Amino acid sequence: MNDATPIRLGTRGSELALWQAETVRDLLSREAPMYEVEIVKVKTIGDRIQDVKIEQIGRTAVFTAELDAALLAGEVDLAVHSLKDVETAELPGMTLKAVLPRGPVEDVLVAPVPFAELKTGARVGTGSVRRVAQLQRLRPDLEIVPVRGNVPTRVAKVDRGELDGLIMARAGLVRLGLAHRIAHVFPPLELKPAVGQGAVCVTVRSDDERMNRIVGALNHEPTWNVVSAERACLRRLGGGCNVPLGVSFTLKDGHYDLQAAVFSLDGMEMVDVALTEPDDADPAAVGNRVAEALLARGAGHILAAIKPRERD
User: Fold this and answer.
1) Residue 290 CB: number of other CB atoms within 10 A?
2) 3-class secondary-structure state, position 81
3) Using an 8 Å Cβ cutoff, are 201 and 98 in contact?
4) What is the pLDDT of residue 65?
5) Residue 89 maps to which CATH number?
6) Is residue 164 flagged as an active site residue?
């Protein structure tokens, strides 16, 4: 024990969220060993309402808003999120201060058989409009079933035979020791991942000098640069997590390799781009250029058709 004020770390209560929180707690214990770290569980509306599609809940930030409110109210000192759940527009008074080294970015199939062996009409579950759109392009013969819930809950639906397969993020399965359940890994150029997929981030209050200093030291700059470009692209397109935008942004060999695509909800329309940028380019500028290239090729038409349906 010590007399220093403990650091209160806010998180959702799912198994995966707690893995992320405990990972950040371990990093903090090395970066600031003089502080105890207390994990505070906060239930979000996305956790409470699981019987409807995310886009039907009627608000954005369904997995982050309550954590944001607790942070801004001073009930916690930092919040840990899956970056793909975090809105691209920061709330006043709050700062996205660090991202950890990125985990696997791919989407995967959890099923008894590989993807190519799924029978026509097989019931495959996902709660992501981005995955639905791309799956319908890859395998229009499948029946796509809306499914939500934490990772073990969804996997159990396959075990019980309620679904023939699930499309999920590889990172979550790996982090929970469930990588052996993966029947197929989709290469990022075959099924483009979500913006920020596989990355864990930490937010703090903008005026909290102690936490800005401590959490800032946890930031992994290569990951930060890539996800910043991805988030800038999404922000320029005016979308959140319900927009079917898939990205494959990498930073290697002295340049950004950038691939992105916008899909109609039924997957029948697609606009895609591939660009290369030098690695010393500003990440936000890189993301904006990708978005502008998508818009120049007609992505605006697809997005305009989607947005009225999201409001219904």
Assistant:
1) 26
2) strand
3) yes
4) 84
5) 3.40.190.10
6) no
Examine the domain organization and report whether 17 and 94 are in the same domain: yes
Assess contact for 100 and 222: CB atoms under 8 A: no
Neighbours of 253 (CB within 10 A): 7
Does residue 168 sit within a domain? Answer: yes
Segment 34-84, tens digit of pLDDT: 999 999 999 765 444 444 444 443 334 455 888 999 999 999 999 999 999
Contact between residue 88 and residue 234 where contact means Cβ atoms under 8 Å apart: yes
Are 213 and 92 in a shared domain? yes
pTM for the structure as a whole: 0.90
Q: Are residues 144 and 91 located together in one domain of the fold?
A: no
Asked whether residue 159 falls in the same domain as residue 11, the answer is: no
Which is catalytic among the residues 47, 77, 85, 164?
85
Domain residue limits at 264: 234-311
What DSSP element (H or E) covers 173? Answer: helix 170-175
Answer yes or no: is pLDDT of 310 > 60. Answer: no
